Amino acid sequence: MLTFTLVTSPTPRGQVDTLTRNFADTLIQARGLTKTFGKFTAVDGIDFAVPRGEAFGFLGPNGAGKSSTMRMIACVAPITSGSLQILGMDPATQGPAIRGRLGVVPQQDTLDLELTVRENLYIYGRYFGLSRAVLRDRVEELMDFAQLSDRADAKVEPLSGGMKRRLTIARSLINDPEILLLDEPTTGLDPQARHVLWDRLYRLKQQGVTLVLTTHYMDEAEQLCDRLVVMDNGGPPDSEGVAVGGGRIVAEGSPQQLIAEHSTREVAELRFAPGENAAAAEQISSLLDPASERAEVLPDRVLLYVSDGERMLARAHEQGLTPISSLVRRSSLEDVFLRLTGRSLID
Amino acid sequence: MAATVAPARIRASRWQVVEYQLYVGRRIWRSMAVVGIFTPLAYVLALGVGLGAVVDGHGNALGVPYIVYVAPAFLTAAALQIASADAAFPIMAGFKWVRTFHGMAATPLTATQICDGQLLWVAIRIFANSAVYLAIMAAFGGTERWWVLLTIPVATLTAIAFAAPVAALAATLENEGNAFNMVFRFIVTPMFLFSGTFYPISQLPQWGQDLAYVSPLWHGTVLARGAAIGHLGALSALGHVAYLLGWLVVGLAVARWRFAVRISK
Q1: How many other CB atoms are there within 10 angstroms of residue A140's CB atom?
Q2: What are the 10-residue block averages of pLDDT along chain A, 347 residues in total?
Q3: Complex ipTM, two decimals?
Q4: Which residues does chain B have with pLDDT short of 50?
Q5: What is the pLDDT of residue A342?
Q6: Gap from A40 CA to chain B (nearest CA, Å)
Q7: Do residue B8 and residue A119 have CB atoms under 8 angstroms apart?
Q8: Which of B92, B11, B119, B21 lies closest to A123 in space, CA to CA?
Q9: Closest Cα of chain B to A329: distance in Å?
Q10: Cα–Cα distances in Å, from A163 out to A148, A172, A202, A329?
Q11: Which of B23, B98, B101 to probe the A interface (max A CBs under 10 A)?
Q12: Which pairs with CB-CB distance under 8 Å and at least 24 residues apart come from B139-143?
């Protein structure tokens, strides 16, 4: 299903790592994985596999079942149906053994604010049954890794959001995990803090840690993920009027591959005077190649998904169209995301 | 091929949860000490010594000085009250506000271990508190014989037997914990008043006595007083212990279940 996509469409980063590894070395394998809460289906029979060393992402709007999926992988929420294997084990019966080899960065920090940075790391290591002697060195290393050594004996409470997040990541590494699960690792952080975190995560990846993350930041997905799946909410209610919920995989591949499959090479953004966008789009439509190109009308501008943006812009001018402003750019993962999951607001 | 190296030896246990609480305790030991010393001092002085002087001066028919009669009951009641408080908001915080239990649940620790560890910590704290209480009782002439040392384990058992169902409630509540106020106002406080703390329950009307029989605190008080004064047969002592163990076993089972449900939500 999916591991082969790595061969046909390698990503620039992590490519060698992934290819030289054994493909049979699948750390996470899900088939028909389903999670329901009463009548609500949060995750609706998804299939995916994550090989060792890969950075794998779940993308999707709120309510698409990303976090529910992560909680099943983390062996804290039981699966409803389907199958899930992690590190060759069954979460239902071997939860503690699996959790002993996972690192988890939850969406909301669970740090003890009353304790110091050092104490948080030490205590968490103790939960894994690690000895005091082992922890003494590891805690120092991890504080160094998270750039928190100078705050070692400071209470956690007053630390900045970025520092707390780095501490949470450091804490998740205390047991030297084979898989690191990150649920929206950088939500709510300022750009500087996000870049520092990405740098740390990239280092982990280079060290061979398998990363599984959820995000709704496209730049984060492009930065970190070798391969990702886009999840979306289910369709309209079924025939009996029951909400079917979300949790389906609607696309899968490397960021480049997804862009190639679900968008065009370039996007031309043409802004016309208010109220004129729809008419302009109508006129431009005749210029598009109906097989591969399309136009999208937004209230304030027209987006043209085309192979050559500059040429399309020139032809629009030839048609006598005079946009107030225009911009030609490469297609991004965000275009794919909006194409697949729609522009309507999901709360 | 699948890289299932032998899993790292997992030695996580409920004691690691206790160790965590000790670290937290290091930060709040002052407030714990204030509660642990001020409460017994206030009760032993005001009611044991003060009220005791009045009772003893007006034909005390209890067979022992009033302070000797009432102090073991105070010790047991204090243990139960502190344990219920420790099992209420701190456990709710662990799920809702600080979310430490969700952090623990991501490690090899199981819901049962987290629940047990938390209650074990409460028991340890109550044991230490009761020892301090007993020392203060002794300092004011509230003890008569060495058997009184048994009030410490008796109070701990009574406290944890009641704290276990409170922990189950704390793991269940999703709101801000208003139900705790109901528990304290309508269960814990009346229990203190109607469990033979100040006088034998034979002085109560029948409905009051029936309430006392249900109350774990009455059973604990009878046991503690038996240790402090005597006049308690082995068989009835066993009966009271069995009743408290029943509360503990059922309460712990429900608490473990509620912890597991909450964690997997």
Answers
A1: 14
A2: 36 42 76 91 92 93 88 95 95 95 93 94 95 94 93 94 92 95 88 86 91 89 91 66 69 89 89 85 83 86 89 87 89 86 65
A3: 0.87
A4: 1-8
A5: 78
A6: 14
A7: no
A8: B21
A9: 43
A10: 7, 14, 17, 35
A11: B23
A12: B140/B44, B140/B45, B140/B48, B140/B49, B140/B67, B141/B65, B141/B67, B141/B68, B142/B44, B142/B48, B142/B67, B142/B68, B142/B71, B143/B68, B143/B71, B143/B228
Residues 77-116 of A with CB under 8 A from B: 77-78, 87-89, 95-97, 99-102, 104, 106, 108-115
Residue A263, pLDDT score: 87
What pLDDT is recorded for position B135?
A: 95
H or E segment to which residue A329 belongs: strand A325-330
Tell me if A85 sits within 8 A of A38, measured CB to CB.
Answer: no
- Would you call B9 and A175 a contact, using CB atoms and an 8 Å cutoff? no
- CA A81 to chain B, closest CA, distance in angstroms equals 15
Rounded-to-integer distance, Cα B152 and Cα B5, Å: 48
Identity of the residue in A95, A108, A178 whose CB atom sits nearest the CB atom of B99: A108
Q: Which domains does chain A have, with CATH numbers?
A: 1-101+177-254+331-347 (3.40.50.300), 112-175 (no CATH), 264-330 (3.30.70)
- The pTM of the full predicted model, rounded to 2 decimals, is 0.86
- Tokens encoding B128: 């230490």
Backbone angles phi, psi at A6, to 5 degrees: -65, -35
pLDDT of residue A316: 86
pLDDT of residue A248: 86
- Closest approach of B24 to chain A, Cα-based (Å): 7
Please report the pLDDT score of residue A238 as a whole number.
56
Quick one: closest CA in A to B15, which residue?
A127
Please give the Cα distance from A305 to A319 (Å, whole number): 18
Residue A30: its pLDDT value, please? 95
A118 in reach of chain B (CB within 8 A): no
| CA atoms of A76 and A96, how far apart (whole Å) | 10
Q: Give the pLDDT confidence of B46-82 residue by residue, as tens digits.
A: 888 898 999 988 888 888 999 999 999 999 999 999 9
Q: Say what the pLDDT of residue A20 is.
A: 44
| Residue boundaries of the structural domains of chain B | 14-264
Is B100 near chain A, with CB under 8 Å? yes
The reply to whether residue B12 touches residue A123, judged by beta carbons under 8 angstroms, is no
User: Considering only CB atoms, which chain B residues are within 8 Å of A110?
Assistant: 98-100, 102-103, 106
**Hey, are the CB atoms on B12 and A129 less than 8 Å from each other?**
yes
Residue with tokens 């009455």: B218
User: Is B6 near chain A, with CB under 8 Å?
Assistant: no
Q: Which of residues 15-44 of B touch A (CB under 8 A)?
A: 16, 19-20, 23-24, 27-28
Instruction: Note whether B99 and A108 are within 8 A (CB).
Output: yes
Q: Distance (Å) from the C-alpha of residue B28 to the closest C-alpha of chain A?
A: 9
- Amino acid letter for position B3: A
Q: How far is residue B121's CA from residue B127's CA, in Å, rounded to a whole number? A: 10
Task: Give the burial string for A245-268 (b: 16+ CB within 10 Å, else e).
Answer: bbbbbbbbbbbebbbeebbbebbb
